[in-house]
Amino acid sequence: MSADLIAVQAEGSWEEQIQEAVTFISRSKPESDRAPFLEAYQKSVVAQESQAPADAGKKAEVLDRVLEDVDGLGIGSPLEIEGFFNLLVSLLVASFPVDTDAGRTRLNQLVSKVSSDASPERASLKLRILTNVFNALHKTSPLRLSVYTTILEQAAQTEETEAVAANEATVDKWLAEWDVPAEEKARFLKTVSDIFDKSGKPARSYTYLLKYLAAAPSADKSDAASAIAAALRQPTVFDFEPLLKLEAVRAAKDEAAFALLKIFLDGGLEEYEAWAKDNGAVLGQLNLDGDKLSRKIRLLTLTTLCCKNVGQDLRYADIASTIKVEESAVESWVIDVIRAGLVSGKLSQTARSFRVHRAAHRMFGAEEWQALEDRLGQWKESIASILDMLKQTAVREAEVEAPAPAQAAPVENGAEAAEPAAAAAA
To answer: Quick one: which of 4, 310, 353, 390 is 20 to 30 A from 211 by CA?
Structure first.
């Protein structure tokens, strides 16, 4: 959805705008009630040309009546309906600053009226109107938070969440701009996560759940357990270290879900099987599939094995023994772990081995930093040795290619004898 600020303005005097709005609303009334409905406004609300313009109190009274008479999206073409609500937004913004309680109350009432329309065929129109409301608000307005939440909730009802959802970078930018308390921002992130979860978008739901826990360190332990379960359910999530860094997750260290997280962070297949044997009920409580978890922990266990053997050949038999599968299934597991982006290498069916080129570290702690330091030291020594060898080679080549020193030309005997004679004559 667009994130630009759009100024919604209407033409005509305030009285003319009210008359236009009331005329549109009257379409939803029975034909016999339309004339009395319009007459009531004309007599008690709309100022006559000969009278003074309505004051602020009168305008508030009129707008409250208009809002009260709005019934869903009303009757008209999509363009007419959208124009009517743009007119109402313009009247509200002009009459009540949205940073006041009066402005917030009435704008929320308008949003509620739009959302109440249950016509499936007008779902897209409803989202467009709500988006117009969002864009009419200043970028720092706290009302943007509630309006955007409503947009997502309405979109989820018709499976259009992806069509209206802003990307994560944009939402982060909005959160930095919106003038709302940190606690309210955290609740917003949790709401967005729940909406995506109910919309069948687990990956996006998990992303916002992580953001929520980061913004709410004192979140309930059940939220931490939900995040752990969500990560484990995601077929593409293999990095669990970001979860462990969250204070809200570490606060749940006594929960069974936290012990499971630790296994997937740096444990192996045997540890998982032991945990599952004692905590079968927990899997059900967290809505986790044991077979899928077994597959994921096998991939992670294979990753650890490869990480310890970078640059070396792993025998099929060793791989099969480590992840407890038949040797005939090893190639399939290696292909899967490569597709997951955890390992790279080359299979050799002839040698029945796997040459490991690269493997991801499941957790980067003190041991991994030390290993990296040692490897960098080895590379430094190797490079220094190569440079020294190249230098020596260059020196030898220079010596071979250098020209021989020039020698004095031989002097004939006659010339040598002439010099003393010349000296004697002198």
So the answer is: 4
Q: 343-348 and 353-359: which strand pairing?
A: antiparallel
Are the CB atoms for 357 and 345 separated by under 8 Å? yes
Instruction: Give the contacts of 365 (CB within 8 A, at least 6 positions apart).
Output: none
- Is-contact 167 189, C-beta < 8 A? no
Cα–Cα–Cα angle for 312, 316, 321, rounded to 5 degrees: 110
Place of tokens 């630009």: 4
Q: What is the arrangement of strands in the sheet containing 353-359, beginning at the earlier edge strand?
A: 313-315, 353-359, 343-348
Amino acid at 65: R
CA–CA gap between residue 301 and residue 6 (Å, rounded): 53
What is the predicted pLDDT for the residue at 248?
94
pLDDT digit string (tens) for 380-393? 878 888 888 888 88
Q: Which of 2-6, 156-160, 246-250 has the highest mean pLDDT?
A: 246-250
Count of Cβ atoms closer than 10 Å to residue 273 Cβ: 13
- What's the CA gap between 81 and 191, in Å, rounded? 29
Distance CA 129, CA 76 (A): 14
More confident residue, 95 or 288: 288
pTM: 0.75
Q: Which pair of tokens denotes residue 172?
A: 């982060």
Q: Distance (Å, rounded) from C-alpha 236 to C-alpha 90? A: 46
Tokens 């030309």 -> residue = 409
Cα distance between residue 170 and residue 219, in whole Å: 24
Which residues are registered as beta bridge partners of 348?
353
The structure tokens listed for 82 are: 């959208």
DSSP bridge pairs for 353: 315, 348
Confidence (pLDDT) at 151: 94
Write down the pLDDT at residue 366.
54
In the predicted structure, residue 204 carries a pLDDT above the cut 90: yes
Cα–Cα distance measured from residue 222 to residue 200, given in angstroms and rounded to the nearest whole number:
21
Neighbours of 77 (CB within 10 A): 9
Mean pLDDT of 267-277: 95
Higher pLDDT, 362 or 299: 299
pLDDT computed for residue 61 by the predictor: 83
